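Work Package 3 (structural annotation) set out to generate three-dimensional models for the target panel prioritized at the project kickoff. During this period the team completed the workflow that converts sequence records into discrete structure tokens, so that structures can be stored uniformly alongside our sequence database. As a representative example, we reproduce one entry of 421 residues exactly as it appears in the project archive.
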Amino acid sequence: MKLLNRTSRYYLFFSLLIFAIIGLALFFALRYTLDHSTDDSLEHTRPALARELLQLKELEPTMYIMDEIVEVRPILQVSDREFFRDTTIMVVEDNGALEPEPFRKYTYEELVDGKPYQVSISLSTVENEDLIRTLLLVVLGGLLLFLLAINLLNRYLSRELWRPFYQTLAQIKDFSIQKDKAPSFSHSDTTEFEDLNRSVEGMTGQLIKEYNTLRRFTENASHELQTPLAIIRNQIDLLLREGERSEQDYNIIQQVSEAVSRLGKLNQSLLLLTKIERGQVPEAEWIDLNPLIERKLEQLVPGLEARGISLHRELAPRSVRMPLMLADILLNNLIGNAIRHNVDGGDLSIRLADDFLVIENTGPPLRQAPELLFERFRKESKSAESLGLGLAIVREICDKYNYNLRYTSEAGRHRMTVAFG
């Protein structure tokens, strides 16, 4: 959730809480004030009612006097007890129907014409209820509009105040160390955002500088290694051709030759990874993968037959837009990896469809987490021929052309899927 939305949610929750508290407080305050006013009115009615009762020849249990309902009940003796309470009385409306209405009742005891009675005076509070509703509607409605206006204003101001931050964030997302260009942020009047922009500019500039230094070192080292490696390889060939050597000398020279060959492959692989990352690859073209895979499989058939590996293929026409060199490397690494990690007497299945390429092979269970396979110098095989860079190169190629590379394993079968998207 965005920071602005989270802040607005807290403000809105707090505003609604304040609204509810103020609403309840206002309701009880109005209720108390109006009840107190009604009680005073009923108390002031008591002397006038006493005079009215003295003039009556007969006291009925329930009487309507001065817009009030008066109830009189004889008792044994008079006390000072009196109290107020809310009640509901059925009243005949203009249409003749009985409807319950709220009343405020004042009950006390006194002598009427020398006889003790309990007298109750009930005064309708319908107007009080209407007044409370009206006041609550007006006040709380105005308060609600005010709180909503404050929240909208706060959201607008927050969005405007945080605009430089989101602009900075957008440039950071768009930043790539391979573009060789540090982001440039506009000036902000907010001190914190200005400090953030200057810090990010300094950090990205330093990252680009260090990356370029490392890249130049890698490129220079790779190029410089090619010449001495070629010289060593030539000298080894001369040693093998010239003179008689003991078997031990031949073994030593052979081991040196294999190490030099491995070092040369490692150098080429690292240089290739650097070129792919920097985009220093040939221009992309449309390549039909079907005949390319067929040619590679024809070259590999003798090796597969020697190990007793069964080959199953299901190839549909599918063209991809990428350099032929990278397509060739991609297939070489995927198919070669499936053969290298296969078992004698196993099988290899290759399926090419419109949306994906699946290469599946039998093999021993994986000894490490699947996601680690695509890291550089991660080797599943203990073979000295494996550099641990094949799948790393495959991943770089797939990332460059937005292909989804996925590995799965189940019941002794390993599946590598390239989804073209």
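The chain has eight helices and twelve strands.
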